[in-house]
Amino acid sequence: MTTAAFLDSLFPRATDIPPAYRLDGPIEQREYLVDGTLHTWPGALAQVRSPVYLAGEHGDEQVILGSTPLLDATTALTALDAAVRAYDRGQGAWPTMRVAERIGHVQAFLARMRQQREAVVKLLMWEIGKNLKDSEKEFDRTCDYITDTINALKELDRRSSRFELEQDTLGQIRRVPLGVALCMGPYNYPLNETFTTLIPALIMGNTVVFKPAKLGVLLIRPLLEAFRDSFPAGVINVIYGSGRETVSALMASGKVDIFAFIGTNKAASDLKKLHPRPHRLRAALGLDAKNPGIVLPDVDLDNAVNEAVTGALSFNGQRCTALKILFVHERVVEQFIEKFNRKLASLAPGMPWETGAALTPLPEAGKVDYLQGLVADAVAKGARVVNENGGQTRASFFYPAVLYPVSRDMRVYQEEQFGPVVPIVPYSDLRTVIDYVLESDFGQQLSLFGNQASEIGPLVDTFANQVGRINLNAQCQRGPDTYPFNGRKNSAEGTLSVHDALRVFSIRTLVATKALDGNKALLSEILRNRDSSFLTTDYLF
Q1: 540, 512, 400, 533: which is closest to 169 by C-alpha?
Q2: Do 350 and 53 meet the contact criterion of CB atoms below 8 Å apart?
Q3: Which of 11, 114, 255, 410 has its CA 20 to 30 A from that of 480?
Q4: 40 φ, ψ to 5°?
Q5: Domains in the chain, please, with CATH?
């Protein structure tokens, strides 16, 4: 298909949209959740624009989805104060509640959340341009994550439900909450990535202030009543507005005990510096990545290409786990590019709800211009766009550009593009690739493609201390959620998985006594009378 043909037919007319995926009109949201009450914001609103444009008589017109509250710092601080009161220095009802009861509240929320699947999926498509299949997958995976978190906590609690005897000291070790958590997620997975910190924080007994991502904001609206009705007042508070206005005030207050953030390392660093007592702040951060895919000369080229195309371009490359740069040995690079471009050409551009749409409009304002700048810089320094239609644009849509040969003096060699630009670097000496990984500011993941154990084995040893995950003959990815998800250098702080997240948002506390008859009798009476929520031998089924 020619460039003009696929671009001209890209955006639909309003009447072309299937009824099931049409919006009823702009959503003016003024509600925000503080201290168990949905309040109405009387002030200014932030306009929410869709990456989707509609074709009309006057050209392309961007869809206005609605608006959300632009809360000020004072209002944001009322949410923080509600969370502080609910935690009550660890004496509140939520942090002292038995684990089984907290699980019951999370299960009640999950049941209410499932009822909003259609509404949330539709907003995922319209707000961030994620296709229908991936939007449904994000919702369902989030629900599965909550279920897995509940089961993991039950297992953790079972292991803690016994007393240990060491050197005549009798003790019970259990995990307890840390305090007030501030949870902020990314726009590319505004539901799933956010809930991988939000739910563990809640279920471990912390109270939370939650600020939705900069994009994908309206899709939280269908869940506000479920949050309100499923948790005690003040346990979960949902705010909106400019991060510079609201989040800066929250951090500067010194009342945040846990900072869960997924975004850029610069933003995380700037916010952490605002906290007046940094030694009391625990951080769980998912930050930048520049994950390389490394294609060795002895390789299953078809598999490498299939994994690289998916890894580089799934959700238009807007994933921290995307393959952001490809190093391909010069012996196979021409074949690799030919196969890569053929596979790329089979990816259908379209609107998120269209069957088979793999390439969709980009939600970030200014993103198309930024990507064009990366391409122009690379071309000016000797690279070529080697795929048909590469880099062609229409409004918010950018057709993937494959750049070759890319060298270290080009911006795209170092910068995380977070979009559909695929830089390919030819190499003859593996030292080039090794130095890139060793010198990189980032260390989330990488992918190795090859068949020779004598090559792969030493490279695994070389990279094991550089990145959090090495993928063999497979794209970079987060899942399965039971595996650790972390990073080194500027890519992350802390480790998240279903199991690790429970530990990130809690701390072990020990109750110990000398193993004397009187002390044993005291503990037995406490357990028998259920005088303590901490000391318990309950077995959760």
Answers
A1: 512
A2: no
A3: 114
A4: -105, 125
A5: 31-44+72-286 (3.40.605.10), 291-484 (3.40.309.10)
From the list 224, 282, 237, the residue with the least C-alpha distance to 80 is: 237
Distance of CA 410 to the CA centre of its chain: 28
Helix, strand, or coil (residue 137): helix
Residue the block writes with tokens 């195309």: 309
Give the sign of the dihedral formed by CA 243, CA 248, CA 254, CA 259. positive
Token pair 């229409």 is found at 394
Mean pLDDT of 151-157: 96
How buried is residue 358: exposed, middle or buried, by Cβ count under 10 Å (0-12/13-18/19+)?
buried
- Taking phi over 0 as left and psi of -120 to 50 as alpha, with beta for the rest, 464 belongs to alpha
Beta-bridged to residue 404, according to DSSP, are 384
Residues 6+ apart with CB under 8 A from 280: 257
pTM above 0.85, yes or no: yes
pLDDT for the residue 7: 87
Residues with Cβ within 8 Å of 274's Cβ and at least 6 positions away in sequence, in order, are 248, 251, 252
Q: Where are the alpha helices (DSSP H) in 161-287?
A: 192-203, 224-230, 243-252, 265-274
Give the pLDDT confidence of 438-475 residue by residue, as tens digits: 999 999 999 999 999 999 999 999 999 999 999 999 99
Give the SS3 label for residue 185: coil
State pLDDT tens for residues 352-404.
Answer: 999 999 999 999 999 999 999 999 999 999 999 999 999 999 999 999 999 99
CB atoms within 10 A of CB 136: 17
Give the number of other CB atoms < 10 A from CB of residue 155. 13
Q: What is the mean pLDDT of the segment spanning 315-324?
A: 98
The per-residue pLDDT for range 244-271, each reduced to its tens digit, is 999 999 999 999 999 999 999 999 999 9
Strand segments (E) across 366-505: 384-385, 393-394, 397-398, 401-404, 421-427, 442-443, 445-449, 469-472, 488-489, 492-493
CA 401 – CA 372 distance, rounded (Å): 9
